[in-house]
Specification:
two-stranded antiparallel sheet; Zinc_finger_PHD-type_CS; mainly beta
Length: about 200
């Protein structure tokens, strides 16, 4: 019998399932619940998904069962101003691909842990919403809003912290020049709610 050219490691069950998979041409091992980048021929950006399991079919081909993450622009609503560049939505879209399409591993954090990263790598992402791929609904429907504009937090947009109430504001929303906002750690910013004499 001709051997498959797909590289994988052992750990089988009688049904042909695998507990882990080694990405072809590398030493990188992928396991269930890991997040991966899947090569696609119809777009520049890869699919980002969470691995559910690996399974070998009756043709000796390794398959990966995944749960897809959607980018904001891939949803029915589309990308809006508070969506960050690295934001993803875990969905109820399950799919099966050849394990050979796995390009590498990535990391999808919750927003709180993403904000704690000292360095955000190329393969670091975050997720705070769950997306229903069939109805277009988002869960949760409401999240905490910040600033006078009452928008959810976007980690890609600079915000300044009021030294009195500890609430965050977009510099533009309080009439602060960007250059001044970049130096906000060097002085004590106080919002208009905490200092009625100020008009923002």
């Amino acid at each position: 019998m001709r051997r498959s050219n797909l590289q994988y490691v052992m750990g089988t069950t009688r049904q042909g399932k695998r507990n882990k998979y080694t990405i072809r041409g590398t030493d990188t091992v992928v396991r269930a619940k890991d997040c991966v980048l899947l090569r696609r021929t119809d777009a520049i950006k890869p699919i980002i998904a969470r691995v559910e399991k690996f399974e070998q079919d009756n043709m000796n081909r390794m398959r990966v069962y995944v749960r897809k993450y959607y980018r904001p622009e891939e949803t029915i609503e589309g990308r809006v101003c508070f969506h960050g560049d690295k934001e993803l939505f875990l969905s109820n879209h399950y799919d099966v691909h050849s394990a050979d399409t796995i390009e590498g591993k990535c990391f999808v954090h919750n927003l709180k842990n993403y904000m704690k990263l000292e360095v955000v790598g190329a393969n670091d992402y975050y997720s705070r919403f769950w997306y229903n791929a069939f109805t277009g609904a988002m869960t949760p429907e409401r999240v905490e809003v910040l600033c006078k504009c009452e928008m959810p937090y976007n980690p890609d947009r600079l915000m300044v912290l009021c030294g009195s109430c500890n609430e965050r504001y977009h510099p533009k929303c309080v009439g602060m020049p960007f250059e001044e906002a970049m130096k906000s750690e060097d002085f004590r910013f106080v919002c208009s709610k905490c200092s009625p004499d100020l008009k923002d």
